[in-house]
Design goal:
Four copies of one chain form a homotetramer. Chain A is built from three helices and seven strands; from the N terminus they run βααββββββα. The first copy, chain A, is of the alpha+beta class. A five-stranded antiparallel β-sheet of chain A has the order 1-4-5-6-3, with helices on one face. In chain A, strands 2-7 form a two-stranded antiparallel ribbon. Chains A and B meet through helix 1 and strand 3 of A and helix 1 and strand 3 of B.
Chain lengths: ~140, ~140, ~140, ~140
């Protein structure tokens, strides 16, 4: 079963571009993270709430395939799906599209782990967060 | 046969870090690109020379596994290897280590394509560049 | 006479922060530029339109006073005013406030010049742009 | 009396540039901070040492005049001078030059304050740091 992904949009700024006059390849990972932040805000929490409980969400793997260059002023839609929801980690798949033309710009994934700030060890994702992520997972 | 990788070092700056007090995950891709730039400088050319000939080197795939966080002021050694040298593309493997402790921080790869700036199509990598990359490829 | 400034809002992302757990000081200038981009979009043009006519808007001076730190997830309101509208340059004053609390975070200005891309010399700002900026200038 | 400034050099990377094919204006402030970090390293301490003592060095004012654009691959020399050394703050003046051509690219200053991390109030700069900065101040 394929669920509707979480969708959010962002505008490419001048500072996102490089001398090739396209979005710098590392900035797609910033866009991805912004989508993740919007997703958590939509679900009713933030990285800060996680931090306050003594946890954080380090990234352990990130992958991107670049399909077409995004340019200054483009409106980009980021689609986020919970591809794998494990006890201690989440794998988000993403697609980025030009919102006006529908052209696919990039796709990939990121794997994040719930970690204890003190011990730096992976820990189970708190139950309330799991419950909030479930409706978006396959 | 395994060849000696190209090695270069860089210092983590304050601006590379984020509120988790570690290097922001997208910045490893900036570090990787800096290593690639140093590599080309070592080989005697730069992105600019490529650009002047009407080409550029867009990234088509990027992957990183994060092993241990890098922090402000850390000296990072980036090792670059030419994992695949194809007619129109190059796959660079990389490893990033804390230069003082030898701890592995991250590893992954990037695939870049030689493209024509006008047509945006992939083209064969110029022979002189191929010759310069060969000694570093498997 | 004091005119109503142009106002726009943006959300602080994780990538905007540094290891002091506040927005990195250089990023206020990125926020300022985003506000300027939103302003032009509001007026019906973009940097790209300017570029297509053979011009660009290099910054010649930038100044910021930091009042209170902005943090991850803060919603920031940027107020932009046309402080000086000269033949070849514009001085924008700005204020950034926490949109939820009203606390002043930063204020300052930026001076930009209309320049010819070929000659790199300052040129008069095109009349249509002057007309669009006038209602926002003192 | 004019003292010799602290000098350090850095290479412009692709990620520092924007679609105008020059260094993005906010990145000069990153370069300035890197020079400050190199300066402290030269003096035998780092932001981290300051942090461990419960202090930090927030920026309260930053100013830059942009003279000539810096471009990808340029080698930039940053000159740093201690323009004012006060009880609780330091004003650094800076100049950035193209190291190969000697052309002045940018100049300006930054004012930083020694602050207590807990109270967020300005505090006197520790005596050992004052002693280290004195030889570089007017």
């Amino acid at each position: 079963m394929s669920l509707t992904p979480f969708k959010t949009a962002l505008r490419v700024t001048w500072a996102d571009t490089d001398a090739a006059q396209v979005v710098h390849y590392a900035n797609y990972f910033r866009f991805l993270e912004r989508a993740e932040e919007d997703f958590y805000r939509h679900l009713g929490f933030s990285f800060i709430d996680i931090t306050k409980r003594g946890f954080w969400f380090p990234r352990v793997e990130a992958f991107c395939q670049y399909k077409k260059p995004a340019r200054f002023n483009d409106l980009i839609e980021v689609e986020l799906t919970v591809e794998e929801l494990r006890e201690k980690s989440v794998k988000y798949g993403f697609r980025m599209l030009n919102k006006d033309t529908g052209v696919l710009l990039a796709e990939g994934y990121v794997v994040i782990v719930m970690a204890d700030k003190q011990t730096q060890k992976a820990v189970p994702i708190p139950k309330e967060i799991v419950e909030k992520l479930k409706p978006f997972s396959k």
